[in-house]
C-alpha cells in the first residue's frame, strides 16, 4: 500500500530533500512521492542533524521520517551499531524494523537487528555476535543484553524514542535511563510521542540539545466515520447496550475500548459467555497469548477485540467496521485516536460511544463535529434474542515455519491441490520461524485441515490444528 492511502499528504516531494540516491530511487519504486505532514516538518531538521520532538501517532508516517533520517546518516562500511530505536512493544518494534528494512532496499548490506522480550534469548545472542548497524528493540530486553555485556552502544550516533509516552506508561523509565547512560553524549536524539506528560518534558530536558518541536494534529474525515452517542444512567446497562448494538450492526470486525485492564477482561469474558466471538487485549496477557489474539483478529477468526488504549496503541488495524467506546475516554485526543481506527483508507466506519453526563470531553467532541451531541435511542430489546455475529474465517496453525523452509506458496498449493478448494476461500498466511498460520473460510475449515494434515509440503507431513 502506498502511504497516500493511509495518511494525509503534503505537496512537498521527497526528491526535494538531500537524500542518498539509493534511498530516493527506492522511494520512487515504493510509490512514495509526496511527504506526509510529519515528514515535511521533521525530515529537513533530522537530515540537518538537529534533535527533534515530534507529536504524531500511528499512521502519520513518522517511522519513514526517522527511518530515512537514520539510513541517510548511516555509514555501511562502518560495521558498528550506529542507530538505536526504542519501542514500547514487540509488535511496534517488529513493524519499525520491517519498515526500515523496506526503506533500506536501495542500500546494500545494511543489517537491522530486533531485540525484544517475549522471544528466546539464544538467537539474539548469536545475532549480536555477528554485529549490526541498527538496533530496534524494547527497553527491557536491551537493558538485559547490556547488563550481560553483550551490547556495545558506544558508537551510536542517533537515538530514536518511538511512542515515548507509552514507554513511561508501561513502567520503562528506569530501563530507558539505564540505556541512556550507555550512549555517547554527542548523538542526535529524536523523540516521538502521542501525548506529552510531565515525565516526557523532564526527559527531553535531560537528553536533548535545543530540540525542535514538530506537531501534527490527528484529523479524521468526519464524512468517513459516523459517530453515534448513547447516554446511559448506570453501569448495569452498558453490557446490554453493547450487546444490542453489536446484534443490530453485526460487525465482521470491531474493537471495544475499555478504560481498565480488569474491565477489558470482564467485558470480553461476558461477551464470550453470551455466545459472541470476543477476546481481550491488555497489558497482563503473556506475549504468546497476545500474539495469538492479534493474529486471529487480523485473520477475522475473532469478530470483537476488547482492548485498553495502552494495549491497542501502535497496532495497525485496518478494515474495522466499528469502534465501541464502552466508557468515554479520559482524554479528548484519545477519543479521536480510538475512532480513527475505523473509516480508514477511504472506507466507511462507525463509532458508538457510551457516556453518563454531558461533560468537558463531550463538549470538545461537539467542537470537532460542529454539532450538538444528542443521545440516540438504543435498538429494541427484542434484538437480545438474535444470533451473535460469527467469524467468517477460522485459523489453522501448522507445526512448521521458515526453519522448515515453508513458504506461503507451499501452504496455498497444498490447500488448492486437486482444485477441491479455491484460492478465494483462503485468507491471510503468516509464517514465523517455527509456526505457520493460515486463515480459511469457516465452511471449509475441517476440509482444509484434513488437506494439510494428510498431504505433504516440502516432501514431508506437518501436524496442524484449528486455533
From TrEMBL:
A motif (Q motif) lies at residues 12-40. SUPFAM superfamilies: P-loop containing nucleoside triphosphate hydrolases. Pfam families: DbpA, DEAD, Helicase_C. The keyword Iron does not apply. Keywords: ATP-binding, Helicase, Hydrolase, Nucleotide-binding. One of its GO terms (cellular component) is cytosol. One of its GO terms (molecular function) is RNA helicase activity. Residues 224-384 form the Helicase C-terminal domain. The keyword Nucleotide-binding applies. Gene3D superfamilies: 3.30.70.330, P-loop containing nucleotide triphosphate hydrolases (3.40.50.300). PANTHER family: ATP-DEPENDENT RNA HELICASE DBPA, ATP-DEPENDENT RNA HELICASE RHLE-RELATED. This is ATP-dependent RNA helicase DbpA.
Amino acid at each position: 500500500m502506498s502511504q497516500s492511502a493511509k495518511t494525509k499528504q503534503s505537496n512537498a516531494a521527497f526528491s526535494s530533500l538531500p537524500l542518498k540516491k539509493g534511498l530516493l530511487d527506492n522511494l520512487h519504486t515504493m510509490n512514495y512521492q509526496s511527504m506526509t505532514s510529519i515528514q515535511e516538518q521533521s525530515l529537513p531538521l533530522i537530515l540537518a542533524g538537529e534533535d527533534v520532538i515530534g507529536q504524531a501517532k500511528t499512521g502519520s508516517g513518522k517511522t519513514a521520517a526517522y527511518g530515512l533520517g537514520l539510513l541517510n546518516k548511516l555509514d555501511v562500511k562502518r560495521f558498528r551499531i550506529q542507530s538505536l530505536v526504542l519501542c514500547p512493544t514487540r509488535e511496534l518494534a517488529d513493524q519499525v524494523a520491517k519498515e526500515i528494512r523496506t526503506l533500506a532496499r536501495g542500500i546494500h548490506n545494511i543489517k537491522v537487528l530486533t531485540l525484544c522480550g517475549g522471544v528466546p534469548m539464544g538467537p539474539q545472542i548469536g545475532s549480536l555476535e555477528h554485529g549490526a548497524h541498527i538496533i530496534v528493540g524494547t527497553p527491557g530486553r536491551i537493558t538485559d543484553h547490556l547488563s550481560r555485556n553483550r551490547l556495545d552502544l558506544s558508537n551510536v550516533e542517533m537515538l530514536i524514542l518511538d511512542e515515548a509516552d507509552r514507554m513511561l506508561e508501561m513502567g520503562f523509565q528506569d530501563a530507558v535511563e539505564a540505556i541512556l547512560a550507555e550512549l555517547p553524549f554527542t548523538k542526535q536524539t529524536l523523540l516521538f510521542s502521542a501525548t506529552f506528560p510531565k515525565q516526557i518534558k523532564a526527559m527531553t530536558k535531560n537528553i536533548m540539545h535545543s530540540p525542535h518541536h514538530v506537531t501534527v494534529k490527528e484529523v479524521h474525515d468526519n464524512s468517513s466515520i459516523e459517530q453515534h452517542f448513547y447516554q446511559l444512567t448506570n453501569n448495569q446497562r452498558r453490557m446490554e447496550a453493547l450487546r444490542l448494538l453489536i446484534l443490530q450492526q453485526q460487525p465482521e470486525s470491531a474493537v471495544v475500548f475499555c478504560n481498565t485492564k480488569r474491565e477489558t477482561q470482564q467485558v470480553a469474558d461476558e461477551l464470550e459467555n453470551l455466545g459472541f466471538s470476543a477476546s481481550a487485549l491488555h497489558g497482563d496477557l503473556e506475549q504468546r497469548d497476545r500474539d495469538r489474539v492479534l493474529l486471529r483478529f487480523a485473520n477475522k477468526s475473532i469478530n470483537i477485540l476488547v482492548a485498553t488504549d495502552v494495549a491497542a496503541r501502535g497496532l495497525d488495524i485496518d478494515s474495522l467496521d466499528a469502534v465501541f467506546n464502552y466508557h468515554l475516554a479520559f482524554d479528548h485526543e484519545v477519543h479521536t485516536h480510538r475512532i480513527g481506527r475505523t473509516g480508514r483508507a477511504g472506507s466507511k466506519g462507525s463509532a458508538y460511544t457510551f457516556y453518563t453526563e454531558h461533560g468537558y470531553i463531550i463538549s470538545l467532541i461537539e467542537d470537532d463535529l460542529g454539532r450538538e451531541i444528542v443521545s440516540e435511542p438504543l435498538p429494541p430489546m427484542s434484538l437480545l434474542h438474535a444470533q451473535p455475529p460469527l467469524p467468517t474465517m477460522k485459523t489453522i496453525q501448522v507445526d512448521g515455519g521458515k526453519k522448515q523452509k515453508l513458504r506461503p506458496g507451499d501452504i496455498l498449493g497444498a490447500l488448492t491441490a486437486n482444485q477441491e478448494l479455491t484460492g478465494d476461500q483462503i485468507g491471510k498466511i503468516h509464517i514465523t520461524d517455527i509456526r505457520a498460520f493460515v486463515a480459511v473460510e469457516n465452511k471449509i475449515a475441517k476440509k482444509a485441515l484434513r488437506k494439510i494434515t494428510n498431504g505433504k509440503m516440502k516432501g514431508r507431513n506437518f501436524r496442524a490444528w484449528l486455533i
